[in-house]
Amino acid sequence: MRLLLIVPSYPHAALPYSGAFNERSALALQRLGASVQVLAPRPCVPPLLARAQARWRAYGEIPAAEIKNGVAVARPRAPVVPRLAPGFWQDRAAFACLSNAARRLHRRGRFEAILSFDLVGAGGIAWRTARLLGIPAAGWATGGDVRFAQSSALGKVARRALANLPLVFYQSRELRALGAALLGVAPEALDAARHRVLPRGIAAPPELDHSAARAQRRAELGVGATDLLVLSIGRLSREKGIYELLRACRVALAQNRALAFRLIGAAPSFDESKSVQREIAALDHGGRVAALPACPPQTIWEYLCAADIFAFASHQEGMPNSLLEALAMALPAAAFAIPAVSEIDGGAGALRAVAPFDADAFAAALLELAASDEQRRALGARGRRRVLESFLIDHSMGEALAALTRLRAAAPAPAAASAGAWTGSSL
Description:
Layout: E1 2-6, H1 20-31, E2 35-39, E3 42-44, H2 47-50, H3 54-59, E4 65-68, E5 71-74, E6 77-79, H4 86-109, E7 113-117, H5 119-133, E8 137-141, H6 153-164, E9 167-170, H7 173-183, E10 195-197, H8 210-221, E11 228-233, H9 242-255, E12 259-266, H10 273-282, E13 289-293, H11 300-306, E14 309-312, H12 321-328, E15 333-336, H13 339-345, E16 352-354, H14 359-370, H15 373-390, H16 393-409
Parallel strand pairs: 1-2, 1-7, 2-5, 3-6, 7-8, 8-9, 9-10, 11-12, 11-14, 12-13, 14-15, 15-16
Antiparallel strand pairs: 4-5
């Protein structure tokens, strides 16, 4: 299938980890035989504003086009005025700026379908481009893109995407329910053929020399051979549960000084790293807790080899890929029992989930895992089995391609309107 992939972000030299899972999805689709062209808006902010913040300055370094890992990526400029009318800039304005580029690409590639990730960041562009080119489109609800009030500007962007895309994938059942709420219907009223739960998933773990990777990365992290390394990978931000995790560090270390905590993911211009570093400095921990910069996606697997326990304290997720990767490496994990985490476990006992946002319960889970090699091995084995059976990206992208093929082959006229059925409305 000749596929146009529309995404809100895609990795590049200035922001090498931005949109990393969009790239992994594109590469999986390519492995499965699809011909993939990526279209990603390149934010263009006013020059005076661009000088005011590192994040905005980084936008100016994004290349307009490149071939990245064998995938063609086009990044037309899309103007953005930060914090002003976000719904307009991400939806109608972005489409207006990208439509000519989409036409040019279509003349060369003759796309058969469009697939987009993030209903707010790319969904509006996708359904409008599909109508422009006369081809079908699907959108993927990835997480925060359906967590808006129905009446908000961004909620309206997501609602229009849900109403106008003929096929929508959701990373979890929770996201599907949130999508139904945006449409103003009960989840059971949604057309099951059109609104499908399908986690994007992760790549299968690479073949590694586990012992060598473990020794090398633990040495780099300053972790001793007898220490129990608790690893967290993710943005250092409030919504990722970083402050609950730091409180859990304090409680756990008061009872077990063999624990060492390494929090990987600091990006000072984009998160709360400075505040987190102050919190760490206030801990009487003797260097047992450290926050470290974000690392390239390909090295995450080696850090997982180095760890004994994975800590995932996020408040909400579409489908937590860092947790899936840890489980795929048979790493026992403690996490808050948010809906996406419960869906990962699926009753399999694949991880240790505790009441959301309870730092004391989180610390107790870490201490329980630290106390038993046998429990860590058993939990790790169940987690790995669960992920390899249900959460691999090649399987998910294969299902998405099959659904798009059926959509392309179907009669173009939409079915009669019903709650949750595609009506073609632009709201």
